[in-house]
Amino acid sequence: MHGQFSRLPVVLLTGASTGLGLATAHALASQACRVALTARAESLPRLAAAGLRESDRLLFRPLDVVERRQRETVVSELTDRWGGIDVLINNAGIAYRAVVEHWDPNAWRNIMEVDVVAALDLTRLVLPGMRTRRSGRILNVSSVGGMMAMPTMSLYSAAKFALEGATESLWYEVRPWGIWVSLIEPGFIRSDSFRNTRFTQRSFSAAMDGDDPYHAHYLHMAQFIERMMERAVATPERVARRILRTLRQRRPPLRVYATPDAHLFALLRRLLPRGLYHGILYRALPHISAWGHENGKPPLA
Ligand SMILES: NC(=O)c1ccc[n+]([C@@H]2O[C@H](COP(=O)([O-])OP(=O)(O)OC[C@H]3O[C@@H](n4cnc5c(N)ncnc54)[C@H](OP(=O)(O)O)[C@@H]3O)[C@@H](O)[C@H]2O)c1
Q1: For 122, phi and psi rounded to 5 degrees?
Q2: Residue pLDDT, tens place only, 167-214
Q3: Which residues line the pocket of ligand 1, CB cutoff 6 A?
Q4: Are 290 and 220 in contact (CB under 8 A)?
Q5: Residues catalogued as catalytic
Q6: CATH no. for residue 138?
Q7: Closest Cα partner for 158 from 111, 222, 226?
């Protein structure tokens, strides 16, 4: 990675406490770079618990990405201490399970603040230094959910589609300064992060209530996603290695399909006409014939 920069690069990683963030933290710790691993204050002890140790090249810093003050403090501390940030990895992210009918404004604000606003504001803060040095890397961790939407994941896809759109604009804007921007798009990762998926009040009661008209949507999609994550070949460590490989590339692509299923979905999207693509995916939804019926069961013939 060092070869891409005129000095020992300074990396800022968000959401380093678990999952892909923690795997990326471990991968970065052994590289020739200076790294600030950040996490919400209450999650920060997990870094030491996972065997990482602070040193003159590895800092642990509290950063709740929705807190504007904390974003500014971390960036200004790294600028004073190490002369600026060369690589920003926006990894922190949350997901909600809710059909559109069960959205609420708080969930909408929450996911947009964590998954989109924080990433763009950190980008805004690191760009002046990158422009002055005429180099830099920004990696925004998106998802296959940022190129295709799944039922019950409307909030997540809305956020990741927004992140993808803004990142694509950014790619054009900052290339003249030699700043490279990439979207890391993992598909299903073998981890238990599906347990962190949040619910709105209405989506939670519908998921619990067998008589709710949307109960089958929640039941079958939750089972499907859990199964896909348990069986996924991709691990957080493997995706972290892909992130490192992207950082070493002289001209990294805008979209990095970070797992085998992400490659497959990208290929299907490229090859199939949109109408056909949506039709095929609709028919492939788990137990789709039961959706929209009482108790998730189709009516007796
Ligand atoms: N898992 C998958 O299959 C998958 C697939 C595609 C894309 N992704 C993307 O990969 C990224 C990492 O997800 P993951 O799978 O590792 O999920 P995860 O295990 O749930 O980890 C999410 C990370 O984000 C952090 N985070 C959440 N809210 C935060 C906030 N306000 N401030 C700072 N950190 C915050 C969490 O910290 P706390 O521990 O403090 O809550 C945690 O470290 C996300 O952007 C996600 O959308 C994941």
Answers
A1: -60, -40
A2: 999 999 999 999 999 999 999 999 878 889 999 999 999 999 999 999
A3: 14-15, 17-21, 39-40, 43, 63-66, 91-94, 114, 141, 143, 186, 188-189, 191, 193, 196, 229
A4: yes
A5: 156
A6: 3.40.50.720
A7: 111
